Amino acid sequence: MTHRGVEKLQALVRIPTVSHRDRSLVDVGVFDAFLAELATQFPLLHERLEPTPVDTHGLLFHWPGRSADRPVVLMAHLDVVPVDDEERWTHPPFGAEIHDGAVWGRGTLDDKGQLVAACEAVETLLEQDFVPAQDVWLSFGCNEEVSGDAAPLAVAELERRGVRPWFVLDEGGAIAAEAFPGVAAPIGVIGVTEKGVTSLELRVEGRGGHASTPARNGPTARLARAITRLDRHQMSASTPEPTVELLRRLAPHASAALRPLMANAGRLGPLLTRVLIAAGPEPAAMTRTTFAITTLSGSPALNVIASTARAGVNVRIMVGDTVASVLEHVRRTIDDDQVRVSVVDQHEPSPVSPMDEAFGLLEATIREVFPDAVPAPYVMMAATDSRFFTRICTRVYRFAPFRMTKAQRESIHAYDEHLGVDAFVDGVRWYQRLIERIPE
Ligand SMILES: [Zn+2]
Question: Do 78 and 173 share a domain, yes or no?
């Protein structure tokens, strides 16, 4: 017999809640249908937890506990990214069909699986008249994928009610198999900080004109020089404490060749950082702020010299650097006052959450439900809605309690996204145990 939660997940994955930066493109009816289906699937949750609407289709649920001293916030988001390559999917992206022991569809991993697992755990506990030791809040965003306002508005609502969360849990890490070369055990990675995502524009203006009479060092050449300078000169690198701790924890599970390096990660300092940089772009990104030149534009015609040349730069800011230090580095490196640098949007890196009692609770619950996994902290490269909660909470953790293979992690925002049925059921149990274990 399938777990009843699986059918709920299927029903909700079938509703294509695709968010858009341009609000006029959002299909409001689809989001309305999702919220109606959620209320049908989780009647007790809606009856007893007084949902507060947030933004257009976000929800904030409040479950009063025996104490309100150390409230806990469990987050997820109900919107998904669009499907633009349907022909590559093995099964229909909004079909939520079960094949090979998994539910297939957009949003199963990111992030409806997490949302439904949390709801199902709460619904089950409500049926048993369970009362948590502390207040539990569920905060579900509706525009995470487009950096919308639901999360900052949820933070404002909690602030208005005087809620200072003990800890916040959002998407991010997972029970990741094949995550580290030479380590066979799955790693229960919990994000304790995330890089800041900031976008810059480089712009050079000049005379333009006819392509038959070009002058040297025009806007495109100056822009190209700025780009290559930026590409050659990185900001300083170091290995942040969560990465050192991750390596230390993995050391006993690593191959004999890597074990000494990992076990002594804390003492190796610059040597370790050099090893990570040499190991490829992914490990290198763990050590420093990265700059990716993304958009480029110049002249629209082959025989016209550009009067304006532009490049977009996507910057992922490492903990320790700031938007201001990034701008200083960019200006100094480019060293050309004709290249104008402007900030398109900016987010500082999130502060590092402590590994104290709250982290220990997540860790202990991972050990109980996934005994083969090694719980460990890590620095997230991607951005989540939880970054907004760092304003009201020092303990913000990013973890979804699902076993995921490498292929599954790569399917997020791509094609063939699927969540194992057993993995989902384990996830429901993890949330249930987490809530039961919240201390007085
Ligand atoms: Zn997500």
Answer: yes
User: Cα-Cα-Cα-Cα dihedral of 384, 390, 393, 394, to 10°?
Assistant: 100
Distance 344 CA to ligand 1 centre (A): 23
Quote the CA–CA distance of 413 and 81 in Å, as a whole number. Answer: 6
Question: In the listed set 324, 345, 366, which residue is the last one of a domain according to the structure?
Answer: 345
Same structural domain for residues 131 and 209?
no
In contact, 190 and 377? CB cutoff 8 Å:
yes
263: Cβ contacts below 8 Å, ≥ 6 apart: 248, 251, 252
Is the pLDDT assigned to residue 1 strictly greater than 70? no
Q: Which of 79, 145, 170, 348 is catalytic?
A: 79
Ligand 1 mean position, distance from CA 202 (Å): 30
377 and 276 together in one domain: no
Same structural domain, 277 and 407: no
Q: Which residue would you say has higher pLDDT here, 210 or 40?
A: 40
In sequence order, the 6+-apart residues with CB closer than 8 A to the CB of 183 are 250, 253, 254, 374
Domain count, the chain: 2
Are 230 and 161 part of one and the same domain?
no
Distance 287 CA to ligand 1 centre (A): 24
Distance 223 CA to ligand 1 centre (A): 35
H-helix segments, 162-292: 219-232, 241-250, 259-263, 265-268, 270-278, 281-285
Q: What percent of the chain has pLDDT over 90?
A: 88
Quote the ligand 1 centre to 269 CA distance (angstroms): 33
Residues 200 and 310 in one domain: yes
Tell me, what's the pLDDT at 67?
A: 98
pLDDT band at 404 (very low <50, low <70, confident <90, very high): very high
| Cα 312 to middle of ligand 1, angstroms | 24
Q: Which of 110, 144, 145, 417 is catalytic?
A: 144
Q: Tell me, yes or no, if 170 is annotated catalytic.
A: no
> Is the pTM value of this prediction over 0.85?
yes
Q: How is residue 303 written in tokens? A: 């025989």
Residue 129 annotated in active site = no
Whether 237 and 93 map to the same domain: the answer is no
Share of the chain above pLDDT 70, in %: 100
